[in-house]
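Supplementary Note 3. Input sequence used for the single-chain structure prediction.
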Amino acid sequence: MTENNELSEREIEILKLVATGASNKEIAYKLSISPNTVKVHLKNIFAKIEVVSRTEAAMYAVKRGWVGEVGQGITIAETQEVTSDQLPNVNRSNAFIRWFLVILISLLLGVLFLYQTFQGPAINAKANPSPTVEPNRWQELKSMPTARSGLAVAVYENQIYAIGGETPKGVTGVVERYDIETDTWDTLPSKPVPVTDIQAAVIGGKIYVPGGKLSSGSPTNIMEIYEPSKNLWKEGPSLPIPTCGYGLVAFEGKLFLFGGWDGQKYLNTVFEYNIDQDKWLERKSMLTGRAYLGATIAGGRIYVLGGFDGRSSLTDNDEYIPENDSWTARLSLPEGRYAMGTTSIADIVYVIGGIKSNENTVLSPLQYIHQLDKWQEFQSPIMEQWYSLALVPYQTRLYGIGGKEGKSYSKINVSFQAIYTILIPIIP
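The predicted structure, written as discrete structure tokens, is reproduced below.
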């Protein structure tokens, strides 16, 4: 067996993500590399550690203590040693039988989990689901130093960067970094142009923050880029138009920016930032002009959700395919909302908080299963009347940071265990 030190740091990083159940596209998104690059790395990893499947590679990572759990799709599996005398009729020398049993058990448990998760009826605006008792999957973490709303967050390596936003004293450019492993915060150089109502995305080890609302109340078209490795900010190509309250995702090495408010109207525009060309390109417009919407990726598609059109909160759920530059309407949100936290993990879309008609409305957290075109509620967070928050995924958890509760600015930092855990055996 190849020794551990023959794997590069990048290969170990990819192997750890494989063990969480991440797909090649998810690994590419997290590491800001292309799916083809992931495939090349995996081929090299498999050759070095002498395995032929992702399951074997994941078990390899577990046995060496690099991860504590192994993922199977949206199910994370913790490992449990099982000896041959506990499983009679298993020939320990027969690797094929050993791994066949592991895979079979994993698949059966995964099917059971999916059945239990999705068997309930889809919810709608009139539904009144009966309460269920389950362990609290929310955890309160070290509070962010600066209370603020409308901030942007981005994950780079194992740290969360909280950028800009609005405080009780006004719009800020403050940047604070949360270390997930140590549950601590530190302060970094401020964003040169203070803005609020922004989003951030990571590509190639850089954090991109386009547009936003200035302290004057007007939107800007300035895009600023932070490089964590150099701990500095620089200015990038300006947006074609000023905008704030937009939706933003990084997809296949490009930025996609949806809608927003330009100071006069609610936009249906879609812009793509092509890093190779270092410029913004206009793509096919959204079906509805809106701001304070949510945007995220699931199943190789971009989902643009909710928002405010100047008159009311929206229920829109539109699927965008960048390759075809096309839009398709999917099942609407159960009720309109905007200024919510939106992200995805393991190909499930999560929507938390937001505003329906006023700041005192309590909106249930939702998850969207795109394969079934179905919405359903999940366990409510610690905050009830929560909006203008930032929501970001990391490994098996969602992290909700900042925002407002009623009229109060918040420095809250909480996590939600989004992926369940089951046991599968490792047969020596």
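Confidence is low (pLDDT under 50) at residues 1-5, 69-93, 119-127, 421-428. Residues 56 and 113 are 22 Å apart (CA to CA).
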